[in-house]
Amino acid sequence: MGSADSKLNFRKAVIQLTTKTQPVEATDDAFWDQFWADTATSVQDVFALVPAAEIRAVREESPSNLATLCYKAVEKLVQGAESGCHSEKEKQIVLNCSRLLTRVLPYIFEDPDWRGFFWSTVPGAGRGGGEDDDENARPLAESLLLAIADLLFCPDFTVQSHRRSTVDSAEDVHSLDSCEYIWEAGVGFAHSPQPNYIHDMNRMELLKLLLTCFSEAMYLPPAPDSGSTNPWVQFFCSTENRHALPLFTSLLNTVCAYDPVGYGIPYNHLLFSDYREPLVEEAAQVLIVTLDHDSATSTSPTVDGTTTGTAMDDADPPGPENLFVNYLSRIHREEDFQFVLKGIARLLSNPLLQTYLPNSTKKIQFHQELLVLFWKLCDFNKKFLFFVLKSSDVLDILVPILYFLNDARADQSRVGLMHIGVFILLLLSGERNFGVRLNKPYSVRVPMDIPVFTGTHADLLIVVFHKIITSGHQRLQPLFDCLLTIVVNVSPYLKSLSMVAANKLLHLLEAFSTTWFLFSAAQNHHLVFFLLEVFNNIIQYQFDGNSNLVYAIIRKRSVFHQLANLPTDPPAIHKALQRRRRAPEPLSRTGSQEGASMEGSRPAAPAEPGTLKTSLVATPGIDKLTEKSQVSEDGTLRSLESASQPSSADGSPAAEEPSQAWREQRRPSSSSASGQWSPTSEWVLSWKSKLPLQTIMRLLQVLVPQVEKICIDKGLTDESEILRFLQHGTLVGLLPVPHPILIRKYQANSGTAMWFRTYMWGVIYLRNVDPPVWYDTDVKLFEIQRV
């Protein structure tokens, strides 16, 4: 039968379904088979031939027929899994049912009355398959998920058959050990199967259906407790799924082994179409959804460790019930870590490669999913985090993240990408090794829209952060605390900042310490505290190599004197806020010596009008995101959080601060007009007295007269002579006793868990456009907005 006939018959069946007012019996095979038995329709056809309006009409007007359609389609998948799909016809039926369910499921999820449907049992569908007793019948959802899992390891359908002869009847699906059929070499599996286009396509269709099952989460509004586990994910990742381990490994290895360059030959992708990429994307999306697990609230129930292979570490106490999270947290072999890290770094660097060898490789689009995966790895597997930081390989993750941050900074549709990049750097910056690694010289010349500089990866990080703060989209203001916390965390380890980076830091201090900025929002002064802490750390712990920064501080000494003499009387406060109304630019670009951008770079562009974006929940403030620890002499950390009351960046008790209005108050305009908050003399005095200026004032007191003397004596206007003097100068014995180093480490909390959930599903929603699985359905987890 031709494809046109096939489509016509399928469409006829759909019309019959939507026009029948009477329930059709489940036993009426002649009617139901029209949907899957004699048609060959692609997933795009199914979406075109089953319009949304008709699915909703059947749901409202003949609900029993929609229920039967779902039940019959699941039944066919279960039968296919049982039989092992040997004939072409069975394979076609499985694919057709899979596409049909992918089309229909979102419309079942969007209606609260239908939400329990898949979790109810169907009469006569006993677990034993017989008609015997209905007590042990499985809910439809469980039957569907187990069938998908079986079908993903179905010889000659989704995996290579291991049998040589055809006489030997095909492998028995029930006794098959799916661990021998893992899709790709990598973690816990050494054999790389021959690539097979058909198997990849079939896997992809089944994974799309699996992702659609999991997507019920999109139809529930964001809950503050976020402890709500997704029942689909919970069941699929439990011991009930005998393929949990091989499937987890298959997904992880498929993603991490993928090489978009095409066998290492540049421009090869122009000759061969790459059918692997859609599978890799789908695998990455399914993987991050299965790992959506709130580590902050979970107690770890026990798991019978029967399914663990040697790739998983058995020494640790049993992990969470979600086996995917459990397996991820127990990967421990060096070669496995190396494989995963190299794979993620290779894929994240792909868009950078594009910029300096245009079209040499296929440009991948799933970097956001990769960043979520990398985050989950570091968050759930501390051994992996330490492995990442053990060598300079971490820089292969850092550079692409800085590239994405810089590139997306002006685009409001990519605010989510900005947040996840910053969260990852915050997590890494809590470890001493990260700061140490940043001292490696930066020589990769990825064209980026930033000033040219010669220096280290620390310089790159500071220059990019400065660019985000001074020329990013205004919706990034809540991230300023995070960006500066990262700089504070690494500052005690930075051996030598370039002049460009030193000037950028001082420009930020200059911008943040203007009186109108300090007085226009309740939290703005924290940014000044963070920057002063950076300068103090470098002066106290890394004075020797940092003559550029010391010189920049001397040149901009007036900023420190102004801070020390900050006015606190009401008229002065009022006057500062008036000035603000006349000069609305939040951070002047002037005085930062921009310099030319790198050759070949394009400026960061705003979002194209009409771009779709999804809303995000607010992220917790920096005091909730991090936990303060003190670095002891021997380098170990001890937490300071157990102290009697939590204190904020400026040392004042957090309770005094109106932090719930924090988001709004960062926007200077809402200061007193809204009647929420206005600065008082007492308030300014309360934090002004705590500004940590002693070290810098002492440095200026000692060095400024000496530098001025050199200038007068030698009639110098040349800074190289002064820098040479500063390089050989010393302040030993002249500075106050070094303060202990404070690190603010990221700590898991339910606020960020909820943020990750909405961000991840928003990305998945927007990235699945062909077919548009969720488009135009009534999702509740986020809003879809147009720029």
TrEMBL record:
Pfam families: Hid1. Residues 296-312, 669-678 have a biased composition (Low complexity). InterPro entries: Hid-1/Ecm30. Residues 296-315, 571-678 are annotated as: Disordered. The lineage of its organism: Eukaryota, Metazoa, Chordata, Craniata, Vertebrata. Residues 632-650 have a biased composition (Polar residues). It comes from the Eukaryota. This is Protein HID1 isoform X1.
